[in-house]
Amino acid sequence: MKKVLLPLLALVSTHALAFDARDVYEQKYAEQPSGVYQDSGHLFFVVKQACEGDKKYSGTKESKLAEKAFYQQLLAEASLRRVSFDPNSISLSGQLKKDVLVSIGQQYDAKALISHQLLFDRDNGSCLREYVQVADATQFEQEKIQVPADTAEKVRNKLLLDAMEQQDLPLLASYMRSLDLTNLESVYAERTKAPYYAVDFQLGDDPSAYSQFCEQDSKYCPKQTQNTYQFDFNSVLDTAFSEKGIINLNSIHPRIKMSSALYANAKSNFDSGKNPAQIELDLTLSLNANANNPLAWQMLSSLYRATNKPQLALYSAQQYLSQQPFSTESWVYLLAPLRNEDQQQAQRLHDVLSSLAKHAQFSPWAQNQIKVYQ
Length: 374
Description:
The chain has helices spanning 2-28, 60-80, 94-107, 149-165, 169-178, 182-191, 207-216, 236-242, 256-272, 276-289, 294-306, 310-323, 328-341, 343-356, 364-372; strands at residues 35-39, 42-50, 117-123, 128-136, 196-198, 249-251. It is an alpha+beta fold. The two termini are 36 Å apart. The relative contact order is 0.08. Keywords: Signal.
């Protein structure tokens, strides 16, 4: 019985405005000329359209002319009252909310979203078409038009993708803060800072080259760390993990070929699903040869997940994001490791990715990760 009553109550509520407005109009404004009248929380848009040509009754032609005149009244009244969107109808915060509101204001006309209802479209017996529309007057106050949720979502996604395409790190950090994605915000904020150079002369370069570089600007000197990881000669892993992977890590003299060869060795074993210790060793050496090898950081995160080291998996994934900050795929890769530390933040990230997947292209792997995320 309750299931039947609820729709009926909703129907009664929907038509209550019209019934009440009809009474008000008939009692006070039925004899008034064309115009806009406000009363009892309603705005009445009244058009009295005379017959076109020599005939006894008004009809379809006059009705269409009256409707056109009504929309002119509506636009004029909305402009006069400076109708605009309600910022509180956008469920965002900070810079992203501001930018969404500005973008919506530029792309969409708030006046077009004013709801109204036809009260009368009738001939009054003297070849005069009486056309009356009514609207809730509160819509005509400033910042009262509700932004549809799907519109706000679409605009938000475009702003995120535009910021990625423009490679705007400060803006991305601000947007991540608006979305309450604190880990991603930290990664993007760190990327705006000067790069941090890991020690990298032990694998063959002249140590004096590093010393000279360090003397020129001491802020680039590495932190003193103890090597926790075997073959982490240049303290690349130690340095990255001491900052939870959130560091703008670089190499002074990267050995790209050596790093790629070591990564290839690790990938061969990884794809075969064997020898995790050797995989870790090869990836460690690969990153010591070139700290800016994102594929090595990505695989290292996968390895740590597979070997039940969730914290290191997250740190590696965050360094991977730091090195691939303008790829939504790196956001997807962060999903699973992040869930082990902060399930709520991971869920927020998943919600954003699920929405973005409607407007952006993702690889089949990424699409599947978003789909199967639990």
